[in-house]
Design brief:
By secondary structure, the chain is of the alpha/beta class. It has helices at residues 6-17, 30-33, 52-67, 87-99, 110-119, 159-170, 188-202, 214-224, 238-242, 244-253, 278-293, 315-321, 327-330; strands at 40-44, 77-81, 104-108, 125-130, 149-153, 176-181, 205-210, 230-234, 258-260, 272-276, 304-305, 309-314, 335-337.
Length: 338
C-alpha cells in the first residue's frame, strides 16, 4: 500500500463503563481510574472499539489532549461510546452520557448531536463530522454559536457534486447513479439536491437509493444494477460506516464504481473516497475540549471547518469491477491502495 453474544456483551460493557479503543481487553471500571475532582469527558467516537478507524480517531484525540497537558487516567477521565444503529438506542445512549454530568461531551455526526441537543442546553458539547450545524439548528451561526454547542464541520453539501464529478472521471461510461443514504439522515435531501443539480451537465440520471439496514442496502443495489453503466455515491452516515463491508461487497458483485466520503471505505474495498482526514477532526476537537476545561464557553468558540482532505483510490477494487483508473487521477491521489 502506498502512502452474537459474547462480543455484543463486551461492546455493551465498553459502552457503559468506558474503555481503551486500542486495547479493549484492558477495560477497567471508571471508579478504578477516577480521582476526586478529575474532569470527565464523554466521547461518542463512532464505529467500534475493534475498528481500526475508531482506534485512529481515539489515538488522535488522546495524543492532542496529551500535548495540551491532559493525560487520561492521570488528570482526565474519558468515557467512550461507540456507534449505534438504532434511533432508540441513540436516544438511550445520549441520555446516559448526559446523565453522567460530564464537563464536556464530544460527539460524532448529526443524529447523536441532535439527541444531545434535545436533552441539554447547558452541558458543553463539541461536535465533529457535522455538515451544516446552522441549518440543522445546533448553532445560531458559525462565528457565534450562541449556546452550549460548537465544533468542527466536515464539508459543505456542495461536496456531493465533487463526488459525482470524481466518479465520472474514474468511470467515464457512467450514465446512471444511485445515491445511497439513510432516509432519516438530516442532510439527505440537501446532498441529493446538489447531486441532481450537477448530474445533467455530466449526462447522468440520478436514482435515490434510501436504505436503513443491510437487507435494504442489498435490495436497493440489486434492483439498481439490473441496467448497465451504473455507479454509486454513498453519502456519509452511521449506516454507511457500520455496513461498509456489505456495501462494498454488493458494489463489487454488481461491478458498480463507487465513491465515498472517508478513507475507511476504500480501505474496506470501496473504490475511492474524497473527504476530510477524519482523525484530524478529533485532534481539532481536543483543542476545544482543552479550552472549555480551562473556562471557555462553547458560545464563544466559533465553529470551524475541516482543513485536511484526501483522495484515496483502491486499485484492487478497480480491477475487480473492470474499471481502469487513469494515471492523471492516480497522481492526484493522496493514497493508492494496490
Amino acid at each position: 500500500m502506498r502512502m452474537r453474544s459474547d462480543r455484543l456483551t463486551r461492546r455493551r460493557l465498553l459502552t457503559w463503563l468506558g474503555g481503551t479503543a486500542a486495547a479493549p481487553a484492558l477495560l477497567r471500571p471508571i471508579a478504578a481510574r477516577a480521582q476526586p475532582g478529575m474532569p470527565l469527558v464523554a466521547a461518542w467516537i463512532g464505529g467500534t472499539p475493534e475498528d481500526p478507524e475508531s482506534q485512529a480517531r481515539v489515538r488522535a484525540f488522546r495524543d492532542a489532549l496529551r500535548e495540551l497537558g491532559w493525560n487520561e487516567g492521570g488528570n482526565l477521565r474519558i468515557v467512550y461510546n461507540w456507534a449505534v444503529r438504532d434511533p432508540d438506542q441513540i436516544r438511550t445512549d445520549a441520555a446516559r452520557l448526559v446523565g453522567l454530568y460530564p464537563d464536556v461531551i464530544v460527539t460524532t455526526g448529526s443524529p447523536p448531536l441532535a439527541a444531545m441537543h434535545r436533552l441539554t442546553r447547558t452541558t458543553p458539547i463539541v461536535f465533529v463530522m457535522v455538515t451544516d450545524p446552522v441549518r440543522e439548528g445546533f448553532v445560531a451561526s458559525l462565528a457565534r454559536p450562541g449556546g452550549n454547542i460548537t465544533g468542527f464541520t466536515i464539508f459543505e453539501h456542495s461536496f456531493a457534486g465533487k463526488w459525482l464529478e470524481m466518479l465520472k472521471e474514474a468511470a467515464p461510461a457512467l450514465t446512471r447513479l444511485a445515491v445511497m443514504q439513510n432516509p432519516d439522515h438530516p442532510a439527505w435531501t440537501a446532498y441529493l439536491r446538489v447531486i441532481n443539480e450537477v448530474a445533467p451537465r455530466l449526462g447522468v440520471a440520478v436514482t435515490p437509493a434510501p436504505a436503513s439496514n443491510p437487507t435494504e442496502i442489498e435490495s436497493a443495489l440489486d434492483a439498481f444494477a439490473r441496467a448497465p453503466n451504473g455507479g454509486l455515491v454513498i453519502l456519509p452516515s452511521n449506516l454507511a460506516t457500520n455496513h461498509r463491508g456489505v456495501i462494498a461487497a454488493a458494489a463489487i458483485r454488481h461491478r458498480l464504481p463507487s465513491i465515498y466520503s472517508q478513507r475507511l471505505y476504500p480501505a474496506s474495498d470501496g473504490l475511492m473516497s474524497y473527504g476530510v482526514v477524519v482523525p484530524e477532526t478529533f485532534r481539532q476537537a481536543a483543542t476545544y475540549v482543552d479550552r472549555i476545561l480551562k473556562g471557555a464557553k462553547p458560545a464563544d468558540l466559533p465553529v470551524q471547518a475541516a482543513t485536511k482532505f484526501e483522495l484515496v483510490i483502491n486499485l484492487k477494487t478497480a480491477k475487480a469491477i473492470g474499471v481502469t483508473i487513469q494515471e492523471t487521477l492516480q497522481v492526484r491521489a493522496d493514497e493508492v491502495i494496490e
